[in-house]
Amino acid sequence: MDIKLRNIYTAFPEGKHKVLTLSYDDGKIPDRRLVALFNEYGLKGTFNVNSGLFDIPYSEAYNERIPVTEYKSLYEGHEVACHTYTHPTIARCPKEQIALQVLEDRRVLEKELHRTVRGMAYPNGSYDDTVAEIFRSCGIVHARTVNSTHSFALPEDYLKWHPTCHHADKSLFDLAKEFTDLHKTQYMYMFYVWGHSYEFERDNNWDIIEKFAREMYGHDDIWYATNIDIVDYLDASSRIQVSVDGTFAYNPSAISVWIEVDKKPVILLPGKYTEI
Known about the structure:
Order of helices and strands: EEHEHEHEHEEHEHHEHEEEEE
Radius of gyration: 20 Å
Number of helices: 8
Largest sheet: 6 strands, parallel
Helix content: 25-40%
CATH class: Alpha Beta
Shape: globular
CATH topology: TIM Barrel
Number of domains: 1
């Protein structure tokens, strides 16, 4: 009997092979301008906030924090994630305090947003294996470091998620061009940019993120996603069940996922068998 093996690949939504995600910390006033910019150009961000610090006065206006009551409306369409309750250098904290910093931040955010909060960015870039495991036990499924990779590889460990680069990195636009030029669809690529919106005010360089947004806007082969979008989508993709002969697949998850079959995109609807 002849055997015909097919090339079946995991794919991002609509069969895309590239994803762009951004992550910004601290929930300060300039997030309002940054969110508006993201919305204008169709970018998606994860905003990591400290729910216990919003009412602390600051001498510089750009360092003031957005009220918790504004989170739900301001960040609509994006992800709100934890950044701990009071932004300590978390790897120096006792285990009990590490857990409380996460759980209290989650509790406040979830009460305000009416949705579960499962993401995180390490405050002050501080983390170790113990911190990561405590975060995991507190229901956190992804946590961003500040360690730039200058690569487009998918993370090996979502709880030690290293970004591609900071927005002030001198190679940002070289990386952007490299990313948009990638065309080999047999690979999956992720471009992950991080920073703080107040840095644009402090350094008077909003032009950087505005130029970046324009250059990244509207590419047909890029999926624009939050951190949690990526985690949940690839988790669902990992549960696809494909028949041995490669003629049909079953998607047991509650969301649609896409695969590429012999260079053609195929959507697998939730809870359905699909001929491929």
